[in-house]
Amino acid sequence: MKTDELRESYLSFFEEKGCVRRPSDVLVPRDDPSVLFTPAGMNQFKDQFLGVGKLEFTRATTCQMCLRTGDIQNVGVTAYHHTFFEMLGNFSFGDYFKREAIHWAWEYLTDKKWLGLDPSLLSVTVYKEDDEAYNIWHDEIKLPANRISRENEHENFWPAGAPSLGPDGVCGPCSEIFYHPNGGKDNVEIWNLVFTQFNRVGDPPDNLKPLPKQNIDTGMGLERTASVLQGVPSNFEIDTLKQLCLAAADTVGTSYKFEAPEGRPIRRISDHVRAITFSIHEGVNPGSLKESYVVRQLLRRALLEGYLLGKNEPFLYQLVPAVVEIMKTPYPDIVKTVKNVQNTIKDEEEQFLDVIEKGLTRFAGFLKKAEQEGKSEISGEDAFDLHQTDGFLIELTEALAAKNNIAVNRNEFNTLMDRHQKDSGRNAFANSVMSEGPLTALHKTTSDTIFKGYETTEAEGKVVGIIAEDRLVESVVEKGHAHPVAIVLDETPFYAEAGGQVGDTGFMEADGVKFEVINTQKNGGLTLHLGHLLEGQLNLGQTLKATVVETRRAGIQRAHSATHLLHHALRTVLGENAMQRGSKVEEDTLRFDFSHSKALTPKELSQIEDIINQRISEGATVSTELMKLQKARDLGAMALFGEKYPDNVRVVQMGDFSIELCGGTHLSNTGQVGLCKIVNEEPVAKGVRRIHALTGSKALEKTRNTEKLVQEIAAQLKVPRPDELPQRIAQLQDELRDTKKQLLKYSSKSLSGTAEELLERAPTVNDVKIVSYHAQDASRDQLRELADLLRKKGKQVALILGTVIDGKVALMAAVNKDLVKQGLKAGDCVKAAAKVVGGGGGGRPDMAEAGGKDPDKLDDALTTGADYYRGQLEA
């Protein structure tokens, strides 16, 4: 059975059992701060497991793309470890439980209609105290006792060790299913059934309290099960990943065989390039923080494997089409971002190869240091310094050290690395994926807030929740709260911040009560009105009149509608690869991030601005419609990759030129934008650019301010019309050049007098004049001219001059050429002087320049330079 067939088979089986088939959640969950990447199939169902919000279904099945880095050292080494992988799962939220989960798992694995595995090659484990699960396997499935193993809480409990070690919260025993190919010689875990039936409270004994609703969370590794069905020794040998390994080997310039020495690095390259392709597809580019840091490390580790195989140029980007080819059936969207993903990967590869080349010199220094100290290893501190300062991965340091028959103190390195990760918060995943708090409690007792803001900016709503000082309260009294109070209504016209659009502001009122809303946020299905009580007492169950500030909402709508026009214009001018990567929409102000590899030209920006304002002048109709997600995709609606969309989505269409998935508030026609003015374009990340623009009154104000500024400049330059400014500026530049020439003549005369004065008072050593001079407010050109004058006027001169320019030291040293023949070098003098001011430099033996950071020590530097000359001449 092929991998794609297995995925479809599993999902179809559990659909027949009444489970709702759900799409994979995004790989990078934006609304879940507890994890950087989705680590398991249950993550998208955390609210259902916690009983939070409305329960639309009680059983589900998914194939979830996941990313974990906890076992990264084993990737490519063992047969089954990955960073990116797919997890097949079936779930129950207070519906079916152990009996159904076990029976269905056995049916799917052994029934010839489905996988048809030999039952005699399967065994299971259960938690040692879980007699219920044991009896189902033994008495109902008829599995012999010698193929059922009872294990402790560290092996068969979720979370591992929870009864004794915690944490408090939802937990339960699990049952693992193993397959034994080759007559039982090997042992492959293929499925884990988790029975979440307890709430852990405090320390043992009697700390596991039964939950009112019992849940099922199962996980079957897609790649691992495919390897069993296809009879291959490793996940990397299945039909999909084998293709990727062969492509990677071909790109690197080697062959791929599972047992060959090159097999491990090729498998690691294949695994990592799949992970980074999906991450960058969702808009997570390589960087230095959080998930971006993980992507950078995966990319660099993969590139390093190729580098050590002799591939000293970018190659990972060439593998993106191969990843897309094997993954496009379940995830068709990745086809649309191939070019952007490739450009981003290639840029990062080029940067890291530069890092390697620069780091080789420092590595050589540490190698020499170890040899001089008679040590057989490079210290962990030096290896960590290479890693942290130069971006030199520890694997590269170890590989190069091995080539020189020397080791690296890995234990010391690991200690320093662990300390660094703890300090910088770069651990890939948080410890907990479940959390309790006032909002969680509110979700359990309150339905989702009904949003009325598409139709109106004023509506009545009943107070169903009040959170003050981080706890649920029944009332709040007017007083100076240090922190905003959160009010939840059953219905509201206030738009909660989402999709880049900021939350509404306004007021909520009743007789004798006035509450100012300073921000509106969303938590799950609840809308939180954050603000301060200005008058009276606000009580649970009270009805309030909620009013949004209309002028601000109108400005936000102008800016939001303009982002759709901007997206359309960008794709028209730059091509379809210019896809949205994020946005921020405020009152008549917007910023828009999009995929593009280089800065926009002035001509391109003008074209984009023209298209936007042309669409505004057309006054095209803006319509919205709620429809099924698949229907919206079939209509060609553009979506933000990496964004999680519900089954029913809101589609915003402008004329016949723009159709996008969008939950924000909009105008009724494009003409209401009024005017759109682009004010800035800049880079924000590799392959991502950002445009800032203004709409409505702010765009008009920007235009007027620019006109006013031009008029003021014209008045100051005494130009009757602004269009004559370029001619007047050119004239002034000519006059300035002439003035500089005249000043140079005068300064030359002044410098000539200075040179004569310096030579008169200069000390003489062996018939050589030693000149040391701190020139006030001089330029580098003036220092050079003075040096030339001194050498011309004096027969034998050794000089050191200095000045301060823009807060930094400039030094100039020079000697007559006859003195150079005698061994006196200006370069050595200026280097000695530069050290005093924290700088460096050099040049020809007869004239040399240097710089420095410490102006306060300039006189000391000049003295040092003069002492150098004196010492050399006296010697």
TrEMBL record:
The keyword NAD does not apply. Binds 1 zinc ion per subunit. It catalyses: tRNA(Ala) + L-alanine + ATP = L-alanyl-tRNA(Ala) + AMP + diphosphate. GO terms for molecular function: alanine-tRNA ligase activity; aminoacyl-tRNA deacylase activity; ATP binding; tRNA binding; zinc ion binding. One of its GO terms (biological process) is alanyl-tRNA aminoacylation. Residues 1-705 form the Alanyl-transfer RNA synthetases family profile domain. Belongs to the class-II aminoacyl-tRNA synthetase family. This is Alanine--tRNA ligase.
